Amino acid sequence: MFFKDFKRFETELAGRPLVVEVGKMAQLAGGSCMARYGETEILCTATMSAKPRDGIDFFPLSVDFEEKLYSVGRIPGSFLRREGRASEKATLAARLIDRPIRPLFPKDMRNDVGVVATVMSVDPDCAPDVTAMIGVSVAISISEIPWDGPISGVSVGLVDGEYVINPTAAQREKSQMAVTVASTDSLVAMIEAGANEVTNDEMYDGIMFGHAANQKIVEFIKGIRAEVGKEKVEFPSNDPSAELYEAVKDFAIEDVRAALDTDDKRIRDERLKPVYEAVHEKFDEQFPEEADKIDDCLYKLQKYVVRRWLLDDGKRVDGRGIDEIRPLNAEVDLLSRVHGSGLFTRGQTQCLSITTLGPMSSAQMLDGIDSQTEKRYMHHYNFPSYSVGETRPSRGPGRREIGHGALAERALLPVIPSVEEFPYVIRVVSEVLSSNGSTSQGSICGSTLSLMAAGVPIKAPVAGISCGLVTEGDRFMTMVDIQGVEDFFGDMDFKVAGTKKGITAIQMDLKIHGLTPAIIREALDKTYAARCYILDEIMLPVIAEPRKELSKWAPKMLTTHIDPDKIGDVIGKQGKVIQKICAECDCKIDVNEDGQVFVSSVDLENAKKAVFIVDTIANGPETGAIYKGVVTRLMSFGVFVEIVPGVEGMVHISHLDVKRTERVEDVVNVGDEIIVKVLPRDEQGRLNLSRRDALIEVEGLTPENEISDRRPPRRDHRRPRHDK
């Protein structure tokens, strides 16, 4: 056989074959495999650099999820006809894989590690992101890269009251939740969820259901590693020596405690500056070979202080109680001309969210590997450098901004009204003005305020809150509403968003290998109580429900439905008819293939006029209706009048005026606006109009009155005849 190291491993997952092939493709990578789940096929590779990267204080891991449109039999829509930058969904899939694998790498390793999942074939019933997560776990496990895996990941749905592992495309349409759960052999390593207001119990049971399914796949991967795995390499540790750390600790611990003991991030940072200077002054010469590790020692010392306060004293850095939320404030209508705005402040974290409403043609077009081709609700999140008191040029949204925007979008999507209820495209932009932890959850609260202020009839208000964690052996402590320092030095950022009824989104970031069921249960319960408090005490007193009317600056949207066979008549040759309607009514019109018509205009009367015109074109003018039309042609027997763009009828000369008309030119000219009444169609179906009847009905004229007004009675000027 040509591929002498080729191995094929097979198991079953949710009733579908899961096949892992090793030794055929990408053999120069540190670890590689082709993961096949159903007909979804993904090449997964993991490679590590031979030497550590100099001058960094973090583990340099990169994870890429590469969507290839050939995987779904499509040619890219770009000018170059090749894949460009990663789509938003590809970025989110990469983050989904990154979160459970990153904590399992040695924290003191500085060798670059690159993980790539290349999507080569897509079966709609077998999600590529879950398949990639399993394939990546195999690739790292069999490589020489040090790692405490493997992990497995599954998606959990709730269909007709039953939990389903890796639901099919049809099941996903009906599912009340979409939860991705990653697990090690004993702990839950990652949770990513969107849901239609499910209860804590439903969410918890779904997570545990997915965790149990993962155990079989973890054992499957362990078997692959045992058979074909490489020996893990040794690496130079980047940790400071114990001697240096203990020296710094003894010298600076009291100063660090004093510096950290404040609820103001700015004061804390200012207090720490002289501590850093004093430590460097004392130890740079004593430990010249480890001078670059002194900052690491100070970081570890701060972490030690914060965690000891929490675990031993039940004390938080800012003096709050363990389940106490920072001071909160909510406002709406901060910006004059936008369609809706809301400001949410939690301690020193502040998010301003702005809602913009637009016509259906403003929906985002998507060019990805799944079946979704457009997006009607968009949520964008911006995190400028000034929000953390720094200065750096803006380079557009990074993976973090994309991820937090998607989390807020997922949290609010279940309460967004359907297009039938609210025929608008909705874009919300969250501007982080100040950041000291939980900005993503602040953006959810601010966006709820903004949507209600804009008059979007959301089904229920949504709030978000985070829960932190500190662990030591079997001990653990959770705390609500973590600020930045607790996020940096803690073990978990468990973000939960939802209504009072239930959960709409979860995202869990971990720095440890995983969570026990008890921690997950406690986090769900604490975040539920906290978000109910935020809704009842802070947000709803500011704006209790969505406004009944839109902003005067927002477009007014009306809809109508026409026979699809009449779409061509409404659009007209080369679009001339619809362009004329838009110009005449100062509006925008979108027509769907099914005959649904959306008309938007800032002026409601203009929108109503446009709908009236569209209905007239599609259904024909109603007999007896009065129109104001424009004369387009003059004939000897009458004139032609366009009553709406594309609809023209004839006024016979006998119906042109209330008096007898000899020549049409004596009454009207081309371009004149006249009122006409629709007459019954003739035997040939032609549209007949009457100016005469319209004048009688609208202006109350009669033929006799008109004649007497315009032509006085004739006098007989002949001499009287005398009888002889």
TrEMBL record:
Enzyme class: transferase
Keywords from the named record: Cytoplasm, Magnesium, Metal-binding, Nucleotidyltransferase, RNA-binding, Transferase
Reactions accelerated catalytically: RNA(n+1) + phosphate = RNA(n) + a ribonucleoside 5'-diphosphate
Chain positions covered by the region annotation Disordered: 701-724
GO molecular function, one term: polyribonucleotide nucleotidyltransferase activity
Domain of life: Bacteria
Compositionally skewed regions (Basic residues) per UniProt: 712-724
EC number per UniProt: 2.7.7.8
InterPro entries tied to this protein: ExoRNase_PH_dom1, ExoRNase_PH_dom2, ExoRNase_PH_dom2_sf, KH_dom, KH_dom_type_1, KH_dom_type_1_sf, NA-bd_OB-fold, PNPase
Residues annotated as binding Mg(2+): D487, D493
Subcellular compartments: Cytoplasm
CDD domains: KH-I_PNPase, RNase_PH_PNPase_1, RNase_PH_PNPase_2, S1_PNPase
HAMAP family in the cross-refs: PNPase
Protein name as annotated: Polyribonucleotide nucleotidyltransferase
Record organism: Candidatus Fimenecus excrementigallinarum
Gene transcribed to yield this protein: pnp
